[in-house]
Amino acid sequence: MLANGHLLIEDLPGMGKTTLSHALAKTLGLDFSRIQFTSDLLPADMLGLNIFDSAKQSFEFHPGPIFSQLVLADEINRASPKTQSALLEAMEEKQVSLDGETRDLPSPFFVIGTQNPMHQSGTYPLPESQLDRFLMRIQLGYPDWNAEKQMLLSQNTSAIETTESVITVDEFVSMQNEVNKVHASDAILDYVLRLVTFSRETEGFPNPLSPRASKATLQAARAWAFLHSRDYVIPEDIQAVLPSVAEHRLRGSTSDFNGQSSLSEKLLDAIDPLAA
User: Fold this and answer.
1) 213: helix, coil or strand?
2) What is the three-class DSSP state of 16?
3) Residue 118: predicted pLDDT
4) Per-residue buried b or exposed e for 148-166, using 16+ beta carbons within 10 Å of the residue's own CB
5) What kind and span of H or E run contains 250?
């Protein structure tokens, strides 16, 4: 979110994806909405529609749940390709077009998309062009023993509702602006370019990294450096974020994530950050 990108979480149901998203929205003071994607969900259900007001003799726009600052697109790969495409267009343009009129989405605007593993039935795989719109893909995984035991002991079922924001939206936007100022030297830029070029020129990478992936890697590394109180990027920042930024792009739509990062690790192993 500091890198001003969207997040894809691939995991089984019940792993806390909705709780995480809602908690982030409350903590950052953002408007939150959840869209449950199903096979019969229509683009208008998500974007909104114009309804005729007989009293005013005019059409009135009723915004859909996409008009929130943080949107949880739950089980995105259960929706039809048409509905998926409408969401991804809104993510890319940060605006929607309805009946010939363009409407801006709130600012800031983030989407946390979730999808079930591809081996589960009833899924429509996101094509590579749409996977590329997500800055990062992660897997939450199971909590450790102590964390899950603490969850079982907890009687507070409304903890999210009572959570208060720790910063304002303006403060968060200011942090994003500071991330954009984090310096990346020519050596860092060359390191990123060598990584993506290797994926394009070497066998074993069925989906080479695009220029969008280059930009995503650098922006995520800037955010990582900012979180570690630095105003400059080092090679370790690139190495820290590359698996989450690149793996879903390298693997494409036909492969489960399963926490694997073998292709991105292959890139990191092949390219020396200190090479000329």
Assistant:
1) helix
2) coil
3) 62
4) eeeeeeeeeeeebeeeeee
5) helix 235-251
Q: What is the second-level CATH architecture of the domain 1-162?
A: 3-Layer(aba) Sandwich (3.40)
Q: Is CATH 3.40.50.720 the classification given to domain 182-275? A: no
The tokens of 205 are what? 């990478």
* Residue 230: pLDDT band with limits 50, 70, 90: very high
Q: How far, in whole angstroms, is CA 33 from its chain's centroid?
A: 15
Name the 3-class secondary structure at 125: coil
CB 79 within 8 A of CB 116: no
* Better-predicted residue by pLDDT, 215 or 125: 215
Contact 46, 89 (CB under 8 A): no
DSSP at 13:
T
Asked whether the domain spanning 182-275 has the same topology as the one spanning 1-162, the reply is: no
Neighbour count for residue 55 (Cβ, 10 Å): 6
**CA angle in degrees (0–180, nearest 5) for 85-31-243:** 55
- Under 8 Å CB-to-CB from 23, ≥6 apart: which residues? 160, 163
Q: β-pairing, 7-10 with 110-115?
A: parallel
Q: What pLDDT, in 10s, does the model give residues 149-197? A: 988 888 766 677 777 889 999 999 999 999 999 999 999 999 999 999 9
Q: Which two tokens stand for residue 45?
A: 């259900």
* Secondary structure of residue 234 in the 3-state scheme: coil
Delimit the domains of the chain by residue range. 1-162, 182-275
Tokens of 137: 């893909």
